[in-house]
Amino acid sequence: MGKRSKSKFAEAALDKSTIEDDDGEHQYVSMATVKELLKVQESTLRTLFETVVNSLTTRVDEVVQNLAAIRASLEYSQREIDQLKPLEGQLNTFSVTVDKLSRDLVLQDLKAEYLENQSRRNNIRVSGIPESDDKETWEETESKVQKVVEEKLGIKLEIERAHRVERRKRQERSGNADKPRTIVCRFKSWKQKEQVLMKARKNKPVGLFISEDLALATLKKRELLIPQLKAAKEAGKIAYFVLDKLVIRDKPN
Fold it and tell me: Which of 39, 149, 178, 205 is the most exposed place for a label (fewest CB within 10 A)?
């Protein structure tokens, strides 16, 4: 074989690739075909890569947009907070004012309660004295109190004024009431009032109940302390009220 024949054979060998089929036979594929296959593979890989890159780019863009929205929201919230700061100061001032007004109202209520109790300091309330009818006069009421207290306590009263406080119910006006109305009795001196109260607490006259005449606010405060008063007495202690204060002490030996 000459040199020319060998050269042609070499070129043919370079232009073909040998592959083995399923039967073990050799087949030849041209280099042009291999190049085309490689180009197709490259194109496929490029398309896949571009798809992945585009997908990532889209997701990154969404994240960037969300972050921008969050930042804008935070900036807006901060602006709102900055705008509310003056209102916060006003609310604090208002709260201080309300607290002061509340304290002032409490003090005024206490002062009014004290003044009312002072205006009643010579008074007692008497329950259990029979009532004749709706037209009972102050003079008749006063005479009844003087008579009953002198009989049961042995004290001759100097009364400035006496009157019944509640109004009778309509159904009671047709006949005698089962329970007579309470009498508020005002003495000329505070000392006699104290004398009557002390004697009534000591003697406990049957059918007659005598107590201090106090403001409604004070009576409500006392009512809350009644269980403590009863418990102290059951425990053998001395217990009594001074206005709205409960005093408890041991009995002397």
Answer: 178
Residue 174 confidence (pLDDT) above 50: no
**Backbone dihedral angles phi then psi of residue 119, each to the nearest 5 degrees:** -70, -20
pLDDT digits 0-9 by tens, 186-201: 999 999 999 999 999 8
- CA angle 54/59/60 to nearest 5° reads 95
CB 229 within 8 A of CB 239: yes
Tens-digit pLDDT profile for residues 6-51: 444 444 444 444 444 455 554 555 777 777 777 777 778 778 777 8
